[in-house]
Design brief:
By secondary structure, the protein is mainly alpha-helical. 61% of the residues lie in helices and 11% in strands. A two-stranded antiparallel ribbon has the order 1-2. Helix 2 crosses helix 3. The longest helix is centred in the middle third of the chain and has 25 residues. The protein is flat, with a radius of gyration of 17 Å.
């Protein structure tokens, strides 16, 4: 799960769209909404990135501790489950 406001999301998507990794189109149902779709190039890059992400997670757990990392992730899930939305508009 990811939590961020609309403005941050739009800012983060712009460089991905410029590089052709995603497309951002208005919704046919609600012109205020946007539909984001990953492109084949974006999917290819993500596929290449996943093993690197997993390696980074493993290194984090080695240094921080597997149990501590699990507790941290669980605590973050609890925070998100409270419905706390500091970014809500």
């Amino acid at each position: 799960m990811i939590a961020m406001d609309r403005t941050t999301m739009a800012s983060n998507l712009k460089p991905l769209a410029r590089e052709g990794l995603v497309t951002v189109e208005p919704s046919a149902v609600d012109r205020r909404a946007r539909i984001v779709t990953i492109t084949p190039e974006g999917a290819s890059r993500m596929k290449a990135a996943v093993p690197l992400w997993r390696e980074a997670q493993e290194q984090f757990e080695e240094r921080f501790g597997v149990d501590e990392a699990a507790r941290l992730r669980a605590a973050l899930e609890v925070v998100l489950a409270t419905g706390f939305t500091p970014w809500a508009e």
